[in-house]
Specification:
The structure is a single chain. This protein has 146 residues and is α+β, with helices and mostly antiparallel strands. Strands 1-2-3-4 form a four-stranded antiparallel sheet. Strands 5-6 form a two-stranded antiparallel sheet. Helix 5 packs antiparallel against helix 6 and helix 6 packs across helix 7. The longest helix is centred in the middle third of the chain and has 15 residues. It starts with a helix and ends with a helix.
Length: 146
């Protein structure tokens, strides 16, 4: 496998996103990398004021998580659906079990309430294989031969 097979991504997919299925809910995420220009620009804008604090390790974990939740809600998390009565419905389940509208605020709230979910979303958004062109082409070949 050559370097292009390993590192070339589908730039369309990096911005249009992939669906991460968690069973009773699913999240459409874009790449949290260089292929997602919105992410790069917005992260730079949000992190610039705290860059010095980050460089010297003075940025609190709480502040860092709040900034990242805002960045992801704005530029990486493109959609959120909940399975309700065997149909996918746009929205997010809140801590009371109610389905609320998919908004930046509801996403930030879910990410802050569920740090392990946020960590998984971050890992999926940065996972090269989710957006790698060679994997997608191979997946397409496999589905055509079935």
């Amino acid at each position: 496998m050559g370097m292009y097979d390993v590192f070339e991504t589908d730039t369309n997919l990096e911005t249009a996103g992939i669906i991460v299925d968690y069973g009773d809910f699913r999240v459409r995420i874009a790449s949290a990398g260089q292929g997602n220009k919105s992410y790069v620009r917005y992260a730079e804008k949000k992190l610039k004021p705290v860059r010095k604090a980050m460089d010297v390790g003075a940025l609190s974990n709480e502040r860092s998580q709040a900034l990242m939740a805002d960045i992801y809600a704005e530029t990486v998390i493109l959609g959120w659906e909940v399975l309700k009565d065997d149909e996918w419905v746009s929205g997010i389940e809140n801590s009371k079990g109610e389905i609320v509208d998919f908004t930046k605020e509801s996403v930030v709230s879910a990410l802050r309430d569920l740090p392990r979910l946020f960590l998984d979303i971050q890992e999926q958004a940065m996972l090269l294989s989710n957006f790698r062109k060679a994997d997608l082409e191979e997946e397409g070949k496999n589905s055509q031969s079935s």
